[in-house]
Amino acid sequence: MPTLSFASDVPEYKIKASFIYNFARFTQWPDDNNELRICIFGKDPFGFHADDLNGKKINNKTIKVVRTRLIDEVKSCNIVFLNIIPPERHLFERALNKIKGGNILTIADADNVVSFGVMIGLIIEDNKIGFKINNTAIQASDLKISSQLLSLAKEVI
Predict the structure, then answer these.
(1) Which residues pair with 138 in a beta bridge?
(2) What span, in angstroms and rounded, lies between the C-alpha atoms of 96 and 91?
(3) CATH number of the domain that 54 lies in?
(4) How many domains in the chain?
(5) Is the pLDDT of residue 88 over 80?
(6) d(CA 155, CA 148)
(7) Which range marks the domain in which residue 24 is found?
(8) Which residues pair with residue 120 across a beta bridge?
(9) How does 132-147 read in b/e, with b if 16+ C-beta sit within 10 Å?
(10) Cβ distance 32 to 78 under 8 Å?
(11) pLDDT tens for residues 90-133?
(12) Residue 23 has pLDDT above 90, yes or no
């Protein structure tokens, strides 16, 4: 999963949706649920690009994309994309605290999010999308991340 440039007229959040799909492919959850819930918490920057993931399968799990602004609803997700916009930063912090240490892969794309406990932070460098991983946060959960994914990260803390 190399870094991808979005200068080629591919919308940024279409690429980021693909990254989330690939993060799911390289992650193992401890449960045997048949559904893989990807939740977008807060304002949805993906639009229909996230909907393209609905119904796809990863390891016999069917993806279902859910949009929510309810903190209690994120506890039922396998992956949570936290959209952090400055006026709602307090909601981000509350949601992250609610799911820390659980078996929920947390992803965000704001600056330095991995230092706040988010597991994967999407970044843009030189007009290319890449990612950083907070391995400490991942190890505090029961999730298993492939060493392949770790090796592709721009930084692992």
Answers:
(1) none
(2) 8
(3) 3.40.50.2300
(4) 1
(5) no
(6) 13
(7) 4-156
(8) 107, 133
(9) bbbeebbeebebebee
(10) no
(11) 788 888 888 887 899 999 998 789 998 999 999 999 999 999 99
(12) yes
